[in-house]
Structures are given as structure tokens and as C-alpha cells.
């Protein structure tokens, strides 16, 4: 029902693409990260919660339609619906049903409910297209409550040492997760402009996030003390960071699970918190779908596909253009 083309995942019967990486007439979008939602498509279909983020990233003039989770739409006789993926606000798995066959394209997903992104809901299907960003057995996430406790302890240590606390987190998705879960433990948040813009969109659309302050050249240095400063990865090695001296730099990323990554990244602390499923999360999800065939995209595709094959489940790795943005920005 779905095929993998040089433009993206294509449904010929419905004449639409899922997360295309080249411009197409109709794009069905799993979430608003720019490796999945690209500029140039004639029309976009996504969840209602993703609409404002697509407009933020791609421009207010785009043609976009939003659906509620579970709401069905019919495209040339093909039934399409969105179901929570837990990756970020508005993220979804795309369920496609035609002539008794159901395929699900997961996009990016995580199985732990972070409180703000919506709880992941596995979907029964015949064929499941899964990501594998962290598709190695070494990736096993601690509960997020434990990670947030580590962040609070790190902030306390920094304050006692007279250092400002700067956390690196992706501006759309990870930053909102941090703000939502740390709001009752942090007295003041100061943020980079990229995070501030996404935050304003969240507030305008009713998401329960705490107040933040935009960092500008006029921000008094005394405001940094005791605050949590959140910046996107692109700012980590820039001159913009010098204003916070002396500071301790922490990175929130699943890649921090591997010992030594923080040192090689020249950061002071690494917090292995990811918006993707870990190894067990991937395997549990695949089992819960009941799928008869698995396609594995972006990440450790060969490892996961081979493991599934060795355990009696037909699986095939597929090359796509997903994941490049997140690899570059260490999310």
C-alpha cells in the first residue's frame, strides 16, 4: 500500500506522501520537526496541534489542514488518521487503511509519557514503519523523573560554585518538555530567541507552560544567578554563550547515554533524556502492533532489522532522509 520513493513514503491509491523530503502536491505530516515537515509542498495534512508549529517553521501562508487524534479522513478511498506518538506536542503516527490492509508510519516516537506531548498509543496494523534512532541494546532510558532530579542537583551544585546553569535542548519539543516538568522546581527560566518563539506559539494555543524571559543584550547579569538558561544546540559553541560566564553547560540528549559523549562534546554535564524510544521501547511497540512486516527507517536500521529477522519477524531496512536535523543538533 505504501512504497518508498525518492520523494518520500508514497500511497499511490490515495495519491499522497507521508513526511516527503522533496516537494509534492499533498503531504501528510507526522510532526513539525524540519526533517519530517519540509517547505515547498502544495498542501499539508497534520494534527490540529501541529498546525501552529508548521506555520511557525514553514510560514503562515502554507495550505494546511489539521485533524484531531483518531479523526478519519478519506483520500481517494484511503482512510487516514493520526494517533499519538509522544515525540513532541502534536506528533502523530499515521494510520493508513485500504481494502482491509492497515499500515502505520510511526514518524518519531517515544513511549514514556512526558506530560506535555501526549501519551503514545500503539496501533494494531499489518505493516509497521518504525524509526530506530536509538536502535541499539545499549540505549535504555531511566525514568524522566530521575533525570529531572539529576538536573536539579546539577543546578544546586552550580549555584554553590557560583556558576550559571545553561542547558542545551532542541527548541521545539525538548525545550517544552523541560519547561513543563521543571516549572515547580525552578524559580526563573531564561531562554534563547528560538526557544522563546516556540514558547509564544505554545502559550497562544493554550499549552500549560511557565513564564520565560527572552535573553537580550539588555538582560541584567544578576538575572542569570539561580535561573535555568535554556539554549538550542546551535548556540552552544557561539559567542552568544560568553555572556553567561562563569557557567556550567549541560546537554539534554539521548546520546549522553554513552559514557564519554559529554566529554567529547566539551560539555560539563550530559543528561540522557530523549524524545525517541529506547531499544526496549522499540521492541515492545513492534510487538504491540501485531504487525506481520516491519520496515525500519533512520537510525541503527541494520541492527534492529537483523534482530527482528533473527527472532522470526520479517523486517527490512529502508533508507530515508529523516534524522539529519536531530543528528546535527544533538537531540
Automatic annotation (TrEMBL):
It comes from the Bacteria. SUPFAM superfamilies: Metallo-hydrolase/oxidoreductase. Gene3D superfamilies: Ribonuclease Z/Hydroxyacylglutathione hydrolase-like. GO terms for molecular function: RNA endonuclease activity. PANTHER family: BLL1145 PROTEIN, CLEAVAGE AND POLYADENYLATION SPECIFICITY FACTOR FAMILY MEMBER. This is Putative mRNA 3-end processing factor. It comes from Chitinophaga niabensis.
